[in-house]
Amino acid sequence: MSTKENLPYQVALTLIPKIGDVLIRQLISYCGSAEQVFKTPVSKLLKIPNIGKTLALNLQDKSVLDKAFAIIEEADRQQVDLLFYTDKNYPNRLKQLYDAPVLLYYKGNANLNHTKTVAIVGTRQCTEYGRNVTEELVEDLKDFNPLVISGLAYGIDIVAHKACLKNDVPTLGVMASGIDFIYPYQHKNTSIQMQETGGILTEQMFGVQPDPRFFPQRNRIIAGMSDVTIVIEAAVKGGALITAEYANNYHRDIFAVPGQLGKSFSEGCNKLIKEKKAEIYTSIKDVVETLNWDLAGHEKSNSFKNTLDLTNFTDDESQVMALLHKNQVMEIDVLAWQSQIHIAKLSSLLLNLEFQGVLKSLPGKKYAISVR
């Protein structure tokens, strides 16, 4: 069955009461497809771990398909892409995460699998210093052409988005509401401009208004889609610190801008640095070195790719090298998922390639081609 034909069943799964992203993936893993989940008898569903009688009976309710078709029609009307986690355009960085949303609503023209992704987050009550640092950071990022991700909120978020528009850097706003409900409303025009080269994205269905419980969920998407999260200004409690905590759990790089002692908007960043949950950010050079983004090295890497001979590698080694050629820098978990090589075998393979001098390990369990 094609992705388009399976989409109503995929959307319908997200409408079932008392079901979550983890259980949906588990059901599809056992049943083979979203359609088969609805066609599997209750007796067989009950044999699947964590599937109780109430959920099994709910899955027999075909009326959710009518709601799913209505959502698909609305998506077509609003030119919104519905991205299920098995879709080729679904963000690969999210696929590896156990708590990733199975369905995303997306509108825009950004490549959600951009080779470089950076989250810029911070307090809603930012200072002039925070605005200046954010604008300077985005300007410095321009040469590396990343996708900049933030939350479309007041403060650092919107400063980052607007700076991206000014510098022609694609930017993605991840929302805690339905894609048709821009919050805050004052940022609607900015969100429309962002869609030309970037976009807006959410896991909430049409018409959903922002709710306090949705913001932490939104923050996990920001952290999960980003190679690095940079916290500009943050209080000890707040969304920026939640995003950083998710990034830490996902083994992603985190930077924090040090702030003035005794100021509430600096306490969060200073705390992250003190607890060694974030590297100190002093300039774009810090990010470039950590993520292996050196421009000169990038040019050499491209040249190296064109002349690399893979004939002396095993099939598995060639596959890994090809993936690293394509993506430049990859985490071991992503390599394992895309290559379908068991993590234990992959670890040994990577070590062997490192001994051969053809690749190098980077902070955060990442690997890259070694340019010689």
Automatic annotation (TrEMBL):
Residues 314-365 form the DprA winged helix domain. Pfam families: DNA_processg_A, WHD_DprA. It comes from the Bacteria. Residues 82-291 form the Smf/DprA SLOG domain. Belongs to the DprA/Smf family. This is DNA-processing protein DprA. It comes from Arcicella aquatica.
